[in-house]
Batch of 3 targets.
Target 1
Amino acid sequence: MATTKLGFIIQRPGYKSENQKLALTHAIASQSVEIYLDDDDEVICDVAFTGDGVLNCIKDQKALENYDLSSTESHIKMGLLCDLNILVCKEDLEKFGLSKSDIVIDAEEFGADVEVKVVPFEEINKMMDDVNHLLFF
Amino acid sequence: MKLVTFVSDYKINVDTLDRLKPEKLGIVLVENGVYHATTKENGNPSSLLNHSADYYVLLNDLETRGLTADDVIDSKVKVIGFGDIVDLIFNDYDKTAWL
């Protein structure tokens, strides 16, 4: 059985480009590739928001109302629904004066079982160490 | 020259804004430029707010990012809509720039 681990690092704010949504979409899509894999193979994805990228996680985004765009917030919630391990750098949140209460944490309305984890960068470093492939956005 | 400048990035890699010397300068914070109006890094507001200029921030782009008019940290930044931007361009400034 082979497990391939992917790590997506989102380090820039969203909307100016589609980068952050691409990262999340790729991570979500990776959970549907099983039909192309051998029976015992699997792909596991972690997503981490660092640097200015933590601004993507601010909750109550009204992208749909203002621009008819799906929000980064909804992409994060879809990621939770797919049981992705989503990490947000604690130090970078604090740098912007933000806390856990300011960001998207769960997707209960969609029935997601997992939550976004606010963790020290050290833990994100460990994740980056653990994965087979790193992708920066 | 009466110049209105649209700032659409949070991290700007060019110093054009520092070098401009118009007789009247307006700075409209749009897209990711809105973070200049709402965000402090390590407790410090954005240095972009230090110019001698009239400041505006687009409400639609604040809301898109989960922010509101209440999140604007400096009262000199006026929260406006698209209609106000049109009025600024046609009534108050000769030229526009996009940074």
Target 2
Amino acid sequence: MKQNSLWKDAFFRLAKDKLALFSLVIVLIYFLVALLSSMGLLASTWSQEVGASNLPPSLEHLFGTDIFGRSVLQKVIRGTQVAMSVGVAASIIAIPIGVLLGAFAGYFGGWIDDFVTWLYTTFSSVPNIMLLISITLILGKGIFAVYIALGATSWVTLCRLIRGEVMKHKEREYVQAAGAIGGGHMRKLFRHILPNVSHIIIINTSMQFQIAIKSEVILSYLGLGVQGEPSWGTMIDDAKLELVRGVWWQLAGATVAMFFILLAFNILSDALRDALDPKLKGK
Amino acid sequence: MKSLVLVLTGVLLLSVGCSKDRSFDERELHLISPEKIAGFDPIQISDMYSGNEAGKVYEGLFEFHPYKRPYELIPNLAAALPVVSADGLVYTFTLKKGVKFHDSPAFPDGKGKEFKSDDVIYSIKRLGDPKLQAKGWWLFDDKIAGLNEWRDKNSALEASNYAEEIEGLKKIDDYTVAIKLKRPYPQFLYALAMPQLFIVAKEAVDHFGKEFLNHPVGTGPFVLPVFEQTNRIVYTKNPTFREKFFPSEGEEGDDKLGLLADAGKKIPLVDKIIVDIIVESQPKWLGFQKAKADLLEIPKDNFDSAVVGGKELAPDLKAKGIRLFANAMLDVTFFAFNHDDPTFKANKKLRQAMSLAWDRAEANKLFYNSSAIEAQSVIPPGLGGYRKEFKNPYVKFDLEQAKKLLAEAGYPKGKGLPTITVQTRNETVARQIIEHFAKCQERIGIKVKVGMNTWPELINKVTKRQHQLYTMAWGADYPDAENFLGLLYCPNSSPGSNGSNYCNPDFDALFKTATVLQDSPERSSMYEKMNEMVAIENPWIFGFHRTKFYLSHAWLKNFKFMEFNHTQFQYLNVDLEVKKELSKKF
Amino acid sequence: MTKYIIRRLLYMIPVLLGVSLIIFLLFNVVSGDPTAVLLGKNATARQMADLREQLGLNKSMFLQYIDVVKSAFTFDFGYSWATKQEISQMIKQGSYPSICLSVPAFVISTIISLFISVFVAYYRGKGIDLFVRVVCIAGMSISALAYILFFQWFFAYKLGWFEISGFEEGFPAFVPYIALPAIIWIVLSIGPDVRFFRTVILDEIYQDYVRTARSKGLSEMTILLRHVLRNAMIPIITYVVIQIPSLILGALLLENFFSIPGLGGITLNALNSSDFPVMKAMAILSSVGYIVFGLISDILYTVADPRIKFK
């Protein structure tokens, strides 16, 4: 019996890894699509008519057409660009803030730690959705407001995690040793500790990425997100009106596109955590 | 734990099964309001839907005849039309006798007091009260002798002094009021029919204080003791409502349609009105089809599933006895250029080019199911000043001419012209309209972007002149083209209603002369002249005069489309026999 | 222990001050002058000046900040711009429908998730475990909006099992109205809940005491229910408690789509009418909720788990 389950475990893990690998490929494909679209090589003609209004999916128009006869597929691709850009921008804002604040707080302790702890407790005390809609509403909407809002909300978890890890590592022997041979604080922190806690950044980013994508969709749906460009959120907003008359393909297009990227990120972040975080290994 | 789950799911499913049966013995009217109701304080009303709710409990001195067209003003709380002095400045009103306010704890013994001249004077003063910042103030701003002075004086005081008499608001006796205007104001009586001028009682305002907006105490046909800000408002018949009877006359043909079958009966005709506030259009539409509402303003987006080919009702709906009402509205949609922006102000050809590039026929098909009329200028058909024969040479789809004009304007193929942002409301269809507009402009090389705003934000951008173009629809407040022409009158520039900040001295001069005249052929021809003068200048890209569509179930009686419909609901009736019979089909 | 709790209580003060600061910066400093928004299309300069005075916008920034702080402690939020209603009254009236929807949905989803996670923990590593995990992840990857649109159309309209939208006060009158949104809520939260609970339970399963129990010959199910679950309950309860404040706003879109006049609907409505005082109030209210329940969760955790040392 035990033998049996061991085999199964191994198989399971293998299958999971394959799945993770597959997810990674999906994520890379999405990035590629977004990149090509932003360079104008893909879906640059999304705003042009390709057929009549509201054509159902067919071989010619894979995802059908929208109310203006634009290709839903092209809109989905354009929406991919928006969604991925939001994830990237949120990470670009959140990682430096989260890592630096967390590292300093964890390493130096004292009033710096008190301040940083207070700062992230404060930020995490305002529910994300309220902070997101407030910031985008007040900054006057548009994609940059979304970037900033997401950046402002997603550094918090990372900061807390990094702080905790740095605190642990600071006492470890290798850091003490580095200190003994005359390394300064900055050197200890950036050359020795940070590389050892960097896996947290990867795990956290892969989780934050999907939160960013989901948030962008909700914000765009509420009319607070991107303006004048297709987004999965505005497509769903369109679909809300079209569904009763049987036009389901815009909803389907946006939902399917969202489904695969979120699925991939979900699996990937699980796998990353298992692989990188030794505490959870073996489960 | 398992059992707990089972029990909980059980309760959930059981109670789902026993949703309430419809009652067929009470005459209930089920309506839908597509927007949240702000409250029941008349002077703060600024949207049609809040006005419709207030109109069930409150009344004004006048109302529009529910069936006669063109719209005719008839006395409501007033006993008759006023006597007007020769110079057109003093209006003497006689009031109905024996009209009672709703019973309310605001009055001694809880019994509603009688409505008298003091209430009229109080309600008008209240509109001008500087402490209240009434949204309807523009109606009487600088119109009534002494009212602005009173307002200014009181803004410095701790509390407004209502005891002070105003020259223009004179009580002659308990049932007679004389109102003196500063200068002729031909739209004055229309204003007195608007929700902002509904009559309130001082006792109720004082008693409820800040909570007055949730405790409507009017003289109207229905009673609502407390407005609880839920999504369902239930009105009951006012037991002390005066003798008011269903009209026996209407527009030609109304009696054939059975609209006057209830003539001479005491109104209101139903015992209860239930209004559900449903904002999202999917539940609204699904709910109507399940007979949860008797009347539905068709959401644009459900049009296709309701109406086949833009004319006929879909057969499955017809089979259920549902009827379709399509009526031209007194409105105009437009894209207004900001004339503070030198790009547009100095460049008439650019404005005209953009107008020519917009494929209105396609927009009409996509957004209005080809039911709207292309606007040639500001005034909609149905108002004096509209001339059917007039065609604006720039209201057509002509890409070649558009390109030519754009080149002449200094931007050949759009070169040198920055991206133009069009501001609009944060709504799906509003966004789509601009997306379509942008698509059209792209064909001649002009780049257009959507800017989405909440309603207050949009107003804010327009009043502060921080826009290039914005789009909006303007609906008539009253049946006088002055209400539309004023949108392009220079002194009305932002923060006034002229959001395009367009100025044309010839137009303004005519406006000044025409708008103080009473309705006459002479005035209409002046309106025509202004309307056509401004059309070819293209301060706006003129859009459409839209059609409004309603669906009603067969058991709803006496419904006729009304532009100014706050008082309409008291005339509606429900045929319980038909309802019982048809309900089997739902 | 008591000392720790007092410390945590006192720590609420700087956090609340911080939250007020964020909200103040957003709504009072960045947002600009609201008077034009408030008075609508026909405002005069005089009217605007009067209104600024009335709204207290002529006060110094510091005094305005103090007002925000005050409202965080007194819950006196003033009046809504859009509806002119008293905000504390709006919140009071909106809480009831919100609670009717969120509490049953929350309780049921937690129980179902717990049940499923014990089940998959028992069959860990087997096909069924993989299946449930895949379903959870897949479910989490579908947009909430898609669920709402589809379920309303299909279950309420096509099948006619539920009311399409609306709300009535009183039990059981409200049940047919909240049933469908509650189901959507449950579907939405089972995915993440099960994933978390499963991890926590599996964390415990590899502890030494489980091995001891197994060697004593106790059945796997008994061990799971008696020992593992009891220990896993600590992180589970704290996780659950900390979610409670999100119940206030959690149903933002659900309430809107099902015309439930709750706090979420109020918030969305405020958002669509740039009603800053209401947005501010909801932000403060939900933050205070987070802080209070965060504290409760912390205290529960320390009370239940002796391994935690107090500072």
Target 3
Amino acid sequence: MTNSKYWEDLILWYLRVSLLLLLLLLIGVLLVIFKNALAAFSVKDLYLLETKSGKKFLGEIWLNSRVAEDNLRLRVGNRDIYGKEFIVVKKDEIESIRVDKDAVLVERVKWGVFIGYLKELIIGNRRVDPEISIVEKTIKKVEKLREKEHELSRNIARLSNELRVVQEKSSPSPYVLEELKKRIETLFKELDNVRAEISQYKLVASTVEGDISTLDMGNVVRVVASGKISYFKKSKIYLSRIWDFLSEYPAESNTAGGIMPAIFGTAVLVFVMTIMVLPFGVIAAVYMHEYAQEGWLINLVRVAVSNLAAVPSIVFGMFGLGFFIYRIGGTIDSVFFPYKLPHPTFGTGGLLWASATLAILTLPVVIVATEEGLASVPRVVREGALALGATKWEVIKGVVLPGAIPGILTGAILAISRAAGEVAPLMLVGVVKMAPELPISGEFPFIHLNRKFMHLGFHIYDLAFQSPNVESVEPLIFATSAVLLVIVLLSNAVTISLRNYLRKRYTHGL
Amino acid sequence: MSKRVFFIFVTVLFGSVVTAQQYKDVISSYPSYKPESIVSGTLTAIGSDTLNNLMTFWAEGFQKFHPGVKIEIEGKGSSTAPPALIEGTAQLGPMSRKMKRSEIDKFEKVFGYKPTAVKVALDGLAIYVNMENPLDSLSIPEVDAIFSKTRYCGYPNDISSWSDIESIKGWSSRRISLYGRNSASGTYAFFKKVALCKGDFKDQVKEQPGSSSVVQSVVADKFSIGYSGIGYKTSGVKVLALAREKGGKPYTVSYDNVVSGKYPLGRFLYIYINDPPTKQVDKMIKEFFRFIFSKEGQSLVVQAGYLPIPFKVAVRELGKIK
């Protein structure tokens, strides 16, 4: 007797410890990701380092577990001059190291950051003292001009698309062609003017070695004089960096700028997938649970569904590529868009096929969860409804389905979480490193299901394994992971609260 | 550490670095890009992962001149380019190696003519070791003996530990851990052909999914060696100078050495297109190549970490596109 009690205690303790470990692991993962993600945007001090052999380096200290203990890693920036952004110095070679209050860090859209000292601000043929407030005002001014540049570009894009449509007609009217060409040319001239105006603004700066470098203000995003600004200003910069990261398009082969298209792509993908998988999965489950006769056939189907859940996701990717893209997409192209061939419209990866692939991938989850939801509706309730004279369909529609909604939504939660985190199958069916356009736009037909898209999971993969400048994007990898986590958690939270609301509503009367 | 050693250390950090200034002469021989016609539409590129970043740079630059053009880029390995061109899912097929005979045949069977190969940039495939490693240079037969089990380049014995390399005798007797690319990549195929004399890789080579993950693995592993494009160099690694033969003079990955062919692992990077001999190629594609072979396009090559191609070659390559 005492022996079995002893064992029971032991097992109980084992369970408690496992649970605790699991919790700690989860918290640990979240901590690591969010700590690194938030640190990615902080304003760091600039250090001036002198080595015993008289070499000078100026930069931020970036520690990294992969750099050995006795080394110090500095981000010295100026990739256009040094060829790379980071250097490693042996600690015992350091003569002196101190914070340099005069140094500034210039964030640019090209060549990464510049780190050095400001010398002059050039506006046209005026040369001004580069006081931070004046520089910041100039950045704002240039930003306005750049917005104008973007708008002109957009207009040119629209008109040149129109021009192409006219040109592709069998007998284009020469008058319309001329007119369009003229309009585009005027816009191009305006664009050139704006660009010329932007190029009037220049920032002269020197590196730590004293070499003078002239930076185009059109490329400058921000100038941070970390030694001279207040704590309040630093946090403002911190927040605006986070905002830029979330709201901007990526630049410089995804090593700079933001991840807005990837966030957008992930959200739209998951949304379209949910719309596809839910009705399909629910109908299948209702038929299997309510109508189909129990027997070997239905059991076979159940086994097949559960096995589908165990198929590696990359296999679904292969299926999507072979079946959706080459077979269905190819057929659609040859029937509806033969005039565009050999350029494919639907016969290539895109949002539609990626969503469909993920829908198949998550279908088993939805079916199983829905079936469980259906099973949870008490028999008494069904029989009561039947006794009151309702037909089978009325019972399902009015009694069983509402009662099963929590189960259906559980399926949706699981499907969304799985889909948002998938990368491998997407690589085959339409995810790209850089998608020039968002899948939703103001252009007819507004939702462009044939467009390729960016995805957070793939973005992380791309940054980590294929970035040419992997050292400086390291913090961005964590930041992107954090964003992906937040999106999954948010969509889950929305579904869970919806489920709780419905559960209350429908179980109230029971 | 003595001053001399530190000096070497710093020159390793800065000396072998590929700086923008170095190529000023090459790039200034190119004309600035001037659009010939107004183009718009979507261009899709599917192919090399090595060229992925460069393609993105070009796309961003090209769209400045042609706001109506959208360029989509997928880079999962050079071997994905030929099927994409054949299926028509892409108009541009960036590849870090030449197409194989079999790939060209398949293309020809479908279209009746050969795909057009355009050399767009130069790349030096680099051999990376950890920064702590005292090794500075290797010869190709040695590289072969390190990476290959067949040793077709003629090194007498296998090199499996660091003590097997004569020039750094006494540094460490640890096993060499090997990193390389996966077999879909053109880098893998090129390395196999040139550095292994068409031999086979050892089974111990850890195949990485991306060019930069090879370099990162070498940063993390003190006793490792790996091969990847020079564009992926980071701090924490060292690029070895290479000699063609055992006992030959080793050359670093500089522009002159790659162009003259003294550096043995220099290679061209290509974009393959479907250019029917009877028809003119799409204006948009023509403009894209005119952009690549311009001052702007070739300075983006440098920005992405690769080497611009000599102007003479560029003129010839542009002439291939009708």
